[in-house]
Amino acid sequence: MNIFIKRLLTCGFRRPKRHRVIKRLYVVFEYTSDKYPIGDISMGGLSFFYEDKGVKPGVGSYKLKIVGRNHLSLRDFPFISISDCEVGEFIFPKSKIKRHSVQFGRLTSRLENQLKSVIQAQTLSPE
Fold first, then answer.
1. In angstroms, what is the C-alpha Rg of the chain?
2. Structural domains in the chain plus CATH codes
3. Mean pLDDT per 10-residue run, the chain (127 residues)?
């Protein structure tokens, strides 16, 4: 229950508003080819879902890329992991589905502009 309250408080004070992804976007970490579906994204970070098989995604990575349809690929996003919590206990009772959130590090102006255009084209506006 404490995690739920913490999430409510965090969402109320979050500066860059999160946008829910409506088209297929994935996150891929350095040194791996595994793709994870992005749930929401902002100018400050993103969250994605994965099935917990004992290894956290992104361990040992320092950069990530965002990929999508039509050869969409944004590379070299510096990041830090913020949270990793279980979310799928009711929807997927036989699987352990987790939501992992990352915060972007300092973005170049090129990456910032590319991210803005992806957010405008591939997401819903925040409520």
1. 14
2. 16-122 (2.40.10.220)
3. 58 70 90 90 93 80 88 90 82 80 93 93 78
